[in-house]
Amino acid sequence: MTDTKTASGTCISPDGSLPAGNDLPDVTLIGAAVLDVLARPVTPEVFTEGSASVKETRLAFGGDALNEATVLSRLGKKVSLITRVGDDEAGAAILRQLRSLGISGKGISVIPGLRTAVNIVLVDEAGERYFLTDPGSSLRTLEPADILPKLEGAGKICCLASMFVSERLPFPEVTKLFRFLKDSGRTVCMDVTKRKHGETISDLRALLSCVDILFANAEEASLLTGTADPAGSARMLREAGVRCAVVKTGKKGCIVCAEDAFFSVPAFPDARCVDTTGAGDTFAAAFLYAWSEGYSLTDCACFANAAASTAVEHTGAVDGVTDPDKILRRFRAVRELPASILPLSSDHS
Question: What whole-number distance in Å separates Cα of residue 320 and Cα of residue 282?
Answer without folding.
Answer: 10
